[in-house]
Specification:
Layout: H1 4-35, H2 41-85, H3 91-106
């Protein structure tokens, strides 16, 4: 007769072997995925070039933003000085002139 305890023993053993094989395959795939490109010099050189280019562009963008902020502060100070030094009657004409200059620069 068939002893079900022996059958269950072999089923558990094959189950453990199957799980072990799946774990080994998953481990192999993870190693292949994470190590696949790391050892190639061309890929490393390209990644380093991308990092360098990114840093250069980031510095350029920061310089442009700083220059725009400085220009904005200078324009604000110029307008404040112009408003402070003129009389109340001449203020609309000066502001209209500043607005016209600003519009010319935007074109």
């Amino acid at each position: 007769m068939i002893d079900f305890d022996d059958v269950m023993y072999y089923v558990r053993m094959y189950y453990r072997v199957a799980i072990g094989i799946v774990i080994l395959v998953a481990l192999y795939l993870a190693i292949w995925l994470f190590k696949g490109y790391g050892g190639r010099e061309e890929v490393k050189a390209t990644i380093d070039e991308i990092k360098t280019t990114t840093e250069v562009h980031e510095r350029r963008a920061d310089d442009i933003i700083d220059a725009a902020k400085a220009k904005e502060v200078a324009a604000s100070n110029e307008v404040k000085k112009a408003v402070d030094t003129t009389s109340d009657d001449a203020l609309p004409d000066i502001l209209a002139g500043l607005l016209a200059d600003y519009r010319k620069q935007q074109r």
